[in-house]
């Protein structure tokens, strides 16, 4: 396949409030072409709202989301620049898959031949002329992906694309996303489950309660979590690490530093002229690190209930 | 805009709704036209045979029969227009629609034009039924179907125009009331119940009749220039009526006001 350079996606301080509830709060991150970026967070974290703001479907309360500086609505040929599959099954049940795609190809002035091409690509060739109302969830996901691909876009934005797919379909999707990124396209994939995307993503952005809690490599998520470190002069080491931006806790006679990688801890000790006696990054496991990040906050429901009872009196 | 109109056309022809509605319209208008042609044709003959009785002039019969297309059929393009919009909300197809064409005003404008054309086609279908069945039945009762008269064909053109405008008004209603069930209930309640009462009520006094002629149904009848309702109902009570072109402009005004209101409300909202 030929290379297809995607544009970068930039979220800048984007915020969305629904009344008093802040669904997305001051979120900033960049998605680069050529890699698969996972957009992770538990259900209700604000992922879909963030993506819908990017696509001009939801108006941000403040902030911007752009494709190389251009808002979605200002793209000259949006479907040929950005392909989107959102989680809601947005199909008229009485329309066939082929006609569904024809409708939007016509709106975006995309040649009709593309409809057959993308139906073949997602494996819906044999069911293309059936009404979508009779489709399984997995087939709807494939049709959603066909819609995303109709304009052969350089950017793919997919919301929970593996939902409803069988293991075979998930494996296929993994390879598909990797191949698109390898062509130089920008691929942003959301999921509420790290395990579903961890084999296909290169970078992750993790949000919870509408706020970003991690942005970086998958490896960094795992290994950068905790570093066990010790030195002859432990108080001096602790001061040096805190100065370098780490959080430090004593644990079983050594120090546990969080917020720095092992390399950074070593460099901070060297800069302070401290001789290390132990430097061991702890591997906590991806899933554990992910859950630690998104589940760290106390349950707000536990605080809401007493307040409501008080007001009722 | 051309691309958006092609897309909106495909949306209408790739689901079964349009021809189901067209078939019901064909049957309903054909039945009503045939019934009226038979009844009034026979009634007119009887009245003519009894001197001193009020007369039903035979030359007024074709217009009454053919205008059943709008008199009983105008609710079809109205509902079709409303469904064309509310279906997008109901099936969440606004998402791919606005992804393909983010200029939402363009989408609504394309919908108004395309659904208007569809309404005109409904008008033609209704005329096929009302003329195709009404004219032979009139002939059977010894009356002239006036199919050779230019007045009849001018009436047909005004009927097609009225059906197109009703469809456009339906798009306006749908964009203002995006909930499909609510939209249909409002359309049916207003056209079948609220408006007939208002039209009758306003025809009682002169000054209320001045207002009543601007009700959409009254304006539609003015545009067409004939309806068996006005011939025997409110018309007898002295309701005033607009010129045909004024009636058309009133319908256009309803379509514009409703569509702009929809554009400013439901059409601008977040699509979630």
Automatic annotation (TrEMBL), chain A:
<protein>
    <submittedName>
        <fullName>ABC-2 type transport system ATP-binding protein</fullName>
    </submittedName>
</protein>
<keyword id="KW-0813">Transport</keyword>
<dbReference type="InterPro" id="IPR003439">
    <property type="entry name" value="ABC_transporter-like_ATP-bd"/>
</dbReference>
<dbReference type="GO" id="GO:0005524">
    <property type="term" value="F:ATP binding"/>
</dbReference>
<feature type="domain" description="ABC transporter">
    <location>
        <begin position="9"/>
        <end position="234"/>
    </location>
</feature>
<comment type="similarity">
    <text>Belongs to the ABC transporter superfamily.</text>
</comment>
<keyword id="KW-0067">ATP-binding</keyword>
<dbReference type="GO" id="GO:0016887">
    <property type="term" value="F:ATP hydrolysis activity"/>
</dbReference>
<dbReference type="InterPro" id="IPR027417">
    <property type="entry name" value="P-loop_NTPase"/>
</dbReference>
<dbReference type="InterPro" id="IPR003593">
    <property type="entry name" value="AAA+_ATPase"/>
</dbReference>
<keyword id="KW-0547">Nucleotide-binding</keyword>
<dbReference type="Pfam" id="PF00005">
    <property type="entry name" value="ABC_tran"/>
</dbReference>
From TrEMBL, chain B:
<protein>
    <submittedName>
        <fullName>ABC-type transport system involved in multi-copper enzyme maturation permease subunit</fullName>
    </submittedName>
</protein>
<feature type="transmembrane region" description="Helical">
    <location>
        <begin position="181"/>
        <end position="202"/>
    </location>
</feature>
<feature type="transmembrane region" description="Helical">
    <location>
        <begin position="106"/>
        <end position="133"/>
    </location>
</feature>
<feature type="transmembrane region" description="Helical">
    <location>
        <begin position="63"/>
        <end position="85"/>
    </location>
</feature>
<keyword id="KW-1133">Transmembrane helix</keyword>
<feature type="transmembrane region" description="Helical">
    <location>
        <begin position="20"/>
        <end position="43"/>
    </location>
</feature>
<keyword id="KW-0472">Membrane</keyword>
<feature type="transmembrane region" description="Helical">
    <location>
        <begin position="249"/>
        <end position="267"/>
    </location>
</feature>
<feature type="transmembrane region" description="Helical">
    <location>
        <begin position="153"/>
        <end position="174"/>
    </location>
</feature>
<keyword id="KW-0812">Transmembrane</keyword>
